[in-house]
Design goal:
27% of the residues lie in helices and 25% in strands. The protein is built from nine helices and 15 strands. It has helices spanning 5-16, 43-50, 64-72, 88-91, 114-120, 156-180, 190-193, 217-225, 297-302, and strands spanning 24-25, 30-32, 38-40, 55-56, 78-81, 98-102, 125-132, 142-149, 233-238, 244-258, 266-268, 273-276, 280-289, 295-296, 311-312. The strands form four sheets. Strands 9, 10, 11, 12, 13, 14 and 15 form a seven-stranded antiparallel sheet that branches. Strands 5-6-7-8 form a four-stranded mixed sheet. The chain is elongated, with a radius of gyration of 23 Å.
Length: 313
């Protein structure tokens, strides 16, 4: 059970390691295009069809027709990767239960966007967890965990790719544990694993991605890479006459140059672009103005005059 590219890696690992995948469950095709007239199948569906696997796409997880179809496959176990919340009638159906591959070291970063939030919060390590589903989101008994280092220069794309591959690896390892234990592998309650204050990973919206320049340059640096390349952090650039334009920022570099209290002020030395944060200037390396293509700072500065009359907020 899964939808995006992240889940394909695990499904592919199951197929290539000759597990008996009797069916795949994914989201309904999504309308795309200017008028929504074209239906786009999920990445999981595309791969499943390429392998000749049956695909179920329920609108509602409690749909009686879907439940009857699912039951008819008589699966011993269900594997969930980047899907949706399941009702007990679904996750409790197989004899060995249902386990989830989550892109964080639970109980930290429960929620829809664990990869983004780990980077945004400046974590140096994250990982993947497999756990049995229960009534609440991301709270079931932990079966296995594998850590993953986050380099300081890494953006969310790097971490996403790394955890995607690690997720497939932990899935295969967890399956072996479950099979060897006849469906009852050693597992640990999450409240036992709590060693510090829990950090959460709620869904990210456009408002979430707005940069707060009153934070330190390190905090803004982590925020930008935690949303790069998608969905992208953004700010509003304002000129001396009050005209506004939205600017997305994809890559920055930390500096030791004091902002001297000029929070949100744009500063340049003709070759570099900086923005003042609470402590130091943050160098802007790659950006995109609304309606334009993504560009480096030099290209941006070549098309701008009197840049120091501008500020961001």
């Amino acid at each position: 059970m899964g939808t995006p590219e992240f889940a394909v890696e695990t499904l592919q690992a199951l197929v290539e390691n000759e597990y008996n995948v009797v069916a795949v469950v994914t989201q309904p095709d999504k309308p795309v295009g200017r008028h929504g007239s074209v239906l786009q199948p999920s990445a999981v569906k595309q791969y499943a069809l390429s392998q000749g696997l049956p695909v179920l796409q329920p609108e509602k997880m409690k749909d009686p027709v879907f439940l009857e179809q699912l039951k008819g496959y008589n699966a011993n176990l269900q594997v969930v990767v980047a899907f949706r919340m399941l009702p007990e009638v679904v996750w409790g159906m197989p004899e060995y239960g249902t386990f989830n591959v989550h892109a964080a070291l639970l109980p930290q970063y429960r929620g829809a966007a664990p990869i983004n939030w780990a980077v945004i919060n400046g974590e140096t390590e994250t990982g993947v967890t497999t756990f049995f589903l229960d009534h609440d989101i991301d709270t079931g008994r932990i079966i296995e965990q594998m850590p993953f280092a986050i380099p300081d220069e890494a953006d969310v794309e790097y971490v996403y790719d790394g955890l995607m591959h690690l997720g497939a690896k932990i899935c295969l390892s967890t399956l072996k544990k479950i099979i060897d234990a006849n469906g009852h592998p050693d597992s640990m309650a999450q409240d036992v694993a709590v060693e510090s204050e829990l950090k959460h990973a709620p869904k990210i919206f456009k408002e979430t991605c707005m940069i707060d320049w009153t934070k330190t340059s390190k905090q803004v640096y982590d925020f930008v890479r935690g949303l790069s390349p998608y969905p992208g952090s953004w700010t509003t650039m304002v000129d001396g006459e009050g005209h506004e334009v939205v600017m997305k920022i994809f890559k920055t570099t930390k500096t030791l140059r004091s902002s001297e209290g000029r929070v949100g002020q744009l500063v340049t030395d003709k070759k570099h672009l900086y923005v003042g944060c609470a402590d130091n200037m943050l160098q802007i390396d790659e950006l995109q103005i609304a309606g334009k293509k993504r560009m480096d700072a030099v290209a941006f500065l070549n098309g701008m005059k009197d840049i120091e009359k501008y500020f961001v907020r």
